[in-house]
Design brief:
The protein is an alpha/beta fold. It has 7 helices and 8 strands; from the N terminus they run βαβαββαβαββααβα. The chain has helices at about 20-25, 40-50, 70-75, 100-110, 130-135, 145-155, 175-185, and strands spanning about 10-15, 30-35, 55-60, 65, 85-90, 115, 125-130, 160-170. α1 (about 20-25) packs parallel to α7. The strands form 2 sheets. Strands 3, 4, 5, 6, 7 and 8 form a 6-stranded mixed sheet that branches. β1 (about 10-15), α1 and β2 form a beta-alpha-beta unit. The longest helix is centred in the last third of the chain and has 11 residues, at about 145-155. The chain has one domain: Spore Coat Polysaccharide Biosynthesis Protein SpsA, Chain A (Alpha-Beta Complex), CATH 3.90.550.10. About 30% of the residues lie in helices and about 20% in strands.
Length: about 190
Amino acid sequence: MQTRQPDEIILVDSVSTDGTVEIAERFGAKVVRIDRDLFIHGRAINIGVEQPTGDIIVLASAHVYPSYRDWIERIYEAFSDERVSLVYGRQVGDARTKLSEHRIFEQWFPARSVENPASYFCNNANCAVGREDVLRYPYDEYLTGVEDIAWAKALLSRGGRIVYDGKRGSFGGRGPQADWMTRVASGGIFG
């Protein structure tokens, strides 16, 4: 259970067949379905961000889950600086993660936090964004796998700020979605 509960839980689902939707609905999530053929990360994020009413949207991909009870609370803290538009957190592997993936996580997601990094690298698998920022400047729906970096680059060019929180993060395991969703829904990590 998270120390700060989300106001709303939104699941953008591209026709999963593993029980994810049913689990999410049991925990009160609003489920927005999109056709599998239309799925691309940027589009799913844009659709998801249109749904809730809150100012800060926490994004969690199907392959991550929080490693700390105060994950939501910590990720919200950075937004006390109104110039911050995106906060992304550390990812570490779990027991299913291969050694090579652990090495990549260590390189891309170090243990030290950085406020306003010089690079526009970020990752939207474990992050929070300002809702108005995404509504005003949506994620590119044609880029595959780098929509987060393109969004961050454009954000920085407009004077926005990014924060990387290396102290609190998520496990980046690639286990079954239903197993992950059970942990997510019981911890309530979408907001």
